[in-house]
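Hi C.,

You asked whether I'd gotten around to modeling the 467-residue construct. I have! Everything is below, sequence then structure, no commentary in between.
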Amino acid sequence: MNFEQLYSETANDLKIKFLDSIVGNNISLQNEYTSFVLSEKSSPETYPTQRFIELLTLNRKKYLRNFENVDLENPDWESYNKPHSGYIAEWEAYQFASEQEFQSIFKTFVQEAVNIIISQNPVELVAMLIGLYEASLDAEIKDEVCSFDDVNEHLLSEFEVTIGSVTEKLKMSALSERLIIDAFEKFLAYCDSEYPGNLHFAGYFEDLLIALAEKSTKPIQLLSAIDNSSVERKLVPKLILFLNKKAGNKDEWVKSAILFHRSNNEVAKQLLQHYFNSDKISFVQTAIELFNTDKKVWSGFLKDYLTIDLDNHLYINVFYQLTIIERNIEHYSKIRSYLSKKELDSLLGEFDWDKAFQVQILALEKHYDRIRQMVETNANDWHFEDLISPILEIFPAFCFQSIKNKARLTIANRRGRDVYERVANWLKLTHKIPGFETEKRALITDLYNFKPNLPALKDELKKANLL
């Protein structure tokens, strides 16, 4: 039984018993509870618009100053932490150091935002986030050392991470209905005033608005607020779907999903899930349409829904594409019986750069002669072991001679512990080759006694239990 069902079926006295048991020893929950109750009991006055703008402006100035105080030519080396212990080029160190300074600023913001959430002030939270967004967009930061392709783009990407983190924390809080609606209306009014017709601004805040809407019992009022503003529904499609679903507007939900699915992948996924449960024909039609627009994205999503009986052509295309993208032999196994020789050769051609995966496919098809040819023409391939392994028992003489020649040639021309370890691994493959016992012992003995003396090689042969 999932949580929502269990919670809806639980008696109120049992819910109160649970609340009493956890609130008594949790200071944070006590503060949230106090703020929530006081907010619910307070007068229904809205947060003053002038105060909202002042707080927004204050935060914008504050974070503009913080961002612009980061000197990309002279980052804070005292606070710099190397991201790893390996070699780091000088330009990378400058970039990492600057990124860490920016991350520290955003981390401070999250800490302040959490306090605002606890104090039941979603309107102030919206004002702070807009201020942070505008500071990220407008900060003028010189980058003479070219640490970033675009400093403001980097700040906006960090802003997206930050608002995502704040949104997750907001989901765990209790909010007053009055404050939710006020936060919505203040945000939409600011959009009308400062970003009319802007195609991107509202989208940055869509998940936050959904988190607020989740705690509201008045989705129709929130939809009306959107429609009475300059924010078009297409700019916040996930929010529109959520509000329609919460309001029980099934027909409106479907209309919105159909309208927006071509421009928003998350909406498209919801529409596909709806069709899969209610209308398989529409599911297939929509899936084909989307798959043809972006095979990489939609093959990964559709694999969990498709069967050969649902639509064999789409099924084959999806797993063909997944085989290319993920190089997973299990994906290929699903469609191998449906591919012609020409289609198989075309698929193999996609992996000219990955001989090892080509061999996996050929081994499954028992095309051992083609694998042997590949071993002959790719004797120096880094994945030699993977290439030759499927045919060790099919062509024993050929395989033993190939390993013998490769091992001797390598020892004669290359040095190093890693080289000797690989040679030992090749020799271990000979254990899977039937026969040639005398020749195997002779080969290992010859390499062990190689002149000049190679102690590291001897050690690797011993570690591989070849002696």
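If it helps when you're writing up: The chain has three domains: 43-260, 293-364, 392-463.

Thanks,
B.
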